[in-house]
Amino acid sequence: ASEITGTVVKRLVDRGAHVKAGQVLLELRADQTSAQLDQARAALRQLVEQSRPQAAAALAQAKVQVEQAERDLKRAQGVFDAGGGSAQQLEQAQTALRNARQQRDSAQAAYNAVAPGGATLAMDGATEILLPVNEQSIGNLQIGQQAQCVADAYPDRSFAAQVSFLAPQVDRTTGTLEVRLRVPSPPAWLKQDMTVSADIVTAQRRNTLVVPNDALRSVNGDQATVLVLRGGRAQAQQVKLGLQGLTLTQVVSGLSSGESVLAGNSVAPGERVQLQTLPLPSAAASSAASGNDLPMPGR
């Protein structure tokens, strides 16, 4: 611990870096006459570095939950319209969407309370994206991995980034790891403090067989069960899994291309089923467009 106190004016090493005895780590300014100004700056720094990123992370998560609830409702509506689901299941999906939207609105209000106002000076230098990643998704992250980013303000435009920093410890309050993405060629419309989503590709497989995650049952490591439509009835089939993404999972063995897999939990093995083809989760569309790759995104 330092024997003196003061305001940090320059940090010469990053968190997690290896240092040597006698190496200068920080430059401090200990001007007693500007103590009150230093305290005000520290409070502002805390707002910018902690309160706002946490509120932004909560808002981003709430938006993801709304999108998932909308997909679930669309799927439930399709099954109900085809006569394969109950009104209770449809009502549950509608209720889940309402609750997700309420949580999103609350998160938006919390973010607005700490959002910047008035004039803001943007720092010059390299462009970075601060990305809080759930600790359950950090096992495959590595420095140098490529990412595709989309800003909420421009959802039809994307730009490339690269993982440049992984924090040495997880935030115990949020259960997330701070990940920084370097943007080598930032677009002109990218502004400071924009809300940005990122897909980090940690592994890929070309021309592989995949199923929606909601079709997997009794998952145990790389083993799972799916229901396959055979002879007009649902039949349980053991499968071996490979890469697992946010919405799709690779099937290494147990299934053949062209077989009809039943999603959801409303059908039991042995029941007679009338097949209705539903669209795959949205992540599948972008995979098919890029050669049927299976990306492994992190948010």
Outline the structure in words.
The radius of gyration is 24 Å and the shape is elongated. The longest helix is centred in the first third of the chain and has 47 residues, at 35-81. Helices cover 28% and strands 28% of the residues. Strands 8, 9, 10, 11, 12 and 13 form a six-stranded antiparallel sheet that branches. The protein folds into four domains: 7-33, no CATH class; 38-114; 127-200, Efflux pump adaptor protein, beta barrel domain (Elongation Factor Tu (Ef-tu), domain 3, Beta Barrel); 210-289, conserved putative lor/sdh protein from methanococcus maripaludis s2 fold, CATH 2.40.420.20. The chain contains three helices and 13 strands. The protein is of the alpha+beta class and 299 residues long. Mean pLDDT is 80; it is low at 283-299.
Task: Summarize it.
The protein is α+β, with helices and mostly antiparallel strands. It is 28% helix and 28% strand. The strands form 3 sheets. Strands 8, 9, 10, 11, 12 and 13 form a 6-stranded antiparallel β-sheet that branches. Strands 3-6-5-4-7 form a 5-stranded antiparallel β-sheet.
Radius of gyration: 24 Å
Helix-strand topology string: EEHHEEEEEEEEEEEH
- Total DSSP helices: 3
Helix and strand content put the structural class at alpha+beta
Report the CATH C-level class of the largest domain.
Mainly Beta
Categorize the overall geometry: elongated
Calculate the terminal CA-CA distance, rounded to whole Å: 35 Å
What fraction of residues sit in β-strands?
25-35%
Q: Uncertain runs with pLDDT below 50, 5 residues or more?
A: 283-299
Largest sheet descriptor: 6 strands, antiparallel
What do the pLDDT scores average to? Answer: 80
The helix content is: 25-40%
Strands, count: 13
Architecture per CATH nomenclature, i.e. the level-2 architecture of the largest domain: Beta Barrel
> How many domains would you count in the coordinates?
4
The CATH topology of the largest domain is what? conserved putative lor/sdh protein from methanococcus maripaludis s2 fold
